[in-house]
Structures are given as C-alpha cells and as structure tokens.
Amino acid sequence: MIGAIVGSLGGFYYLYETIVGKTQPNRITWLLWGILPMIIFVAQRAQDVKGLSWASFAAGFTPLLIVAASFFNKKAYWKTEPRDYYLMAAAIIGIVLWAMTDKPNLAILFSLLADMLAGLPTLIKSYRHPHSESWVAYAVSALGFGISFLSIQAHTFENTAFVAYLFILNGTVAVLASRSRKPERAASSIR
C-alpha cells in the first residue's frame, strides 16, 4: 500500500504540472495507461491478489485524471503523431486478446504488452523532447513502484510482472526526461 501511495504521489505531481502547463502529456499514452492498469487490477483481483492489486489501480486512476486535465490547459497538449495511432491500435489488439482469454495471467501478459506499446510514444518523446516531461513525477513513481516490488512476498507472475514493469518504465522516463531541462526552440510539435 505504501508503494501505491508513493507511486500515486508522482502521478499527482504530474497532474499538477499538467494543470499548470509545465508538461505536455501524450493523450493516447495516458489514456491507455489509465485503461490498461485497470484491466490488470481486475485480473489480479480475480486471482485474489490483495495489496499489490492496489498499485495497479493507482497506476490507472491517475493517468485518467491527467488525460482529463490536459483538455483544460492549451499548454498541456502534445501533438499526436501517426505513429502514436499505430501503437494505440496495437495496444487495443492486446486488450482484445485479453478479452478473448479466460486465463488471468494471460490477461496480465496481454495488458503488459499493450501498456508497453502505449508507452512507446512517451518514451520517444522523453528522449527527443525531455523538457516536455516531468522527470520528478516519474522518479517519485519509480520509487513508489520500487517499494511495492520490495514488498512482494511471493514472486509469482501475477504478483511481480506489472509492478516490476512500472518500476522500469518510470525509472527510464525519469532518466530520459532529466537529461535537459531547456525548452527547445523548435516547438512545432507542441500545440
């Protein structure tokens, strides 16, 4: 629970930076980052995963708030590229595959793959335009999911996979976004 709370703090910091226009979330990524953890949450609960499932819930709830907030500040919008739609389609295929299975671990696997595809636009954006992301928010989230990972008592796929993935993803974006804090002159990608 502590890890989920700390991870949520990073998300709420990103939400704050979205509201004030300091970050420009990729709406496709953040929408899918909201939906996919909720699928994992349901699959984990179906397998009686108790405390760790709340890390999945926290991972999905905050992104849905961030997507909503991005519509209220024109500075908080990142232009979507055609590649983002292809990755979204691939992520949706992952969701369809999840819906076709009655095996919870397979649902977690398909959701993880879909989440990774959904995250690629933000990873690319963090690499190319580090000023557009909040490295602090991702670092705090990585810390929270690291705490959740350390609290795992039984290392099974359903207990470990999503938390480990979130730790790695958030840590990677934090490192990429922390490289340069100067806004780039060519802001044609920002609307």
How many strands appear in the DSSP assignment?
0
Q: Residue ranges: pLDDT <50 for 5 or more in a row?
A: 184-191
Overall spatial form: globular
Q: Helical content, roughly?
A: over 70%
Instruction: Summarize the helix and strand pattern as letters.
Output: HHHHHHH
Q: Please tally the helical runs, counting DSSP H or I stretches of 4 or more residues.
A: 7
Rg, please?
16 Å
Straight-line distance between termini: 38 Å
Major sheet: size, sense and barrel closure? none
Strand content: under 5%
Structural class: mainly alpha
The overall pLDDT, averaged over residues, is: 82
Notes on the protein architecture:
With 191 residues, the chain is mainly alpha-helical. Helix content is 72%, strand content 0%. It is built from seven helices and no strands. The longest helix is centred in the middle third of the chain and has 25 residues, at 104-128. It is globular and about 40 Å long.
SSE order and pairing:
Blueprint: H1 2-19, H2 27-46, H3 53-70, H4 82-100, H5 104-128, H6 135-150, H7 157-177
Helix pairs in contact: 1-3, 1-6, 2-3, 2-4, 2-5, 3-7, 4-5, 5-7, 6-7
